[in-house]
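Final report, Chapter 2: Outcomes

The project's central promise was a pipeline that accepts a single protein chain and returns its three-dimensional structure in a standardized token representation, suitable for archiving and comparison. That pipeline is now operational. To close this chapter, we reproduce one record exactly as it appears in the project archive, with the input sequence first and the structure output second.
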Amino acid sequence: MTDYVIRPLDADSWDAFDALMRRHNGVFGGCWCIYFTPDCAERGQSFEGNRALKKRLVETGQNHAALVMIDDEAVAWAEYGTPDELPNIHHGKQYRAEADLLPDYRVTCIFVDKRHRKQGLAKAALAGALDQIAAKGGGVVEGYPHEIGEKRMSNSFVYNGTRTMYEDAGFTFIRAKGLRNTVMRRTVQPT
């Protein structure tokens, strides 16, 4: 595995995040990883509109991610936040109908630069997010990874990693969500 460091996404690391996003056309069709935010109604306005929204959320401390950095270049991230910061999740109606508790944090999106895939950086990003959550006081953390199964899935469908990756990170399977998504949970102790 390549040498890397984890940095929080904030105003100081914005330029590195911005460069990663631009290399990948804003990721997932120009989303800029705002789909899960309360202001996602603004998404789809334009590439630059989504970028401006993401930047505003980051600068005001309303959006968080662990960035995986190689030298000064961001090569992966894991977005996390409270349910208030990230209320929109796929299969939300089913999720709310079956919910037994509301987590303190959720991990909603993990992305790795195409040039650095299959090097364990998605796991590193998830571990970085959990470390940042621990530094914020810890709590119950949910992730919504995918069940891959026998068929190869496009990376655009594996936007939050796999069930196996979450199990390796200490998460427990709670239930299925939609066709190939899951609800996984772990308690993170404060540091």
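Archive annotation: Helices lie at 14-23, 47-59, 92-98, 121-135, 163-168.
This record, like all others produced under the grant, will remain available to the consortium after the project formally closes.
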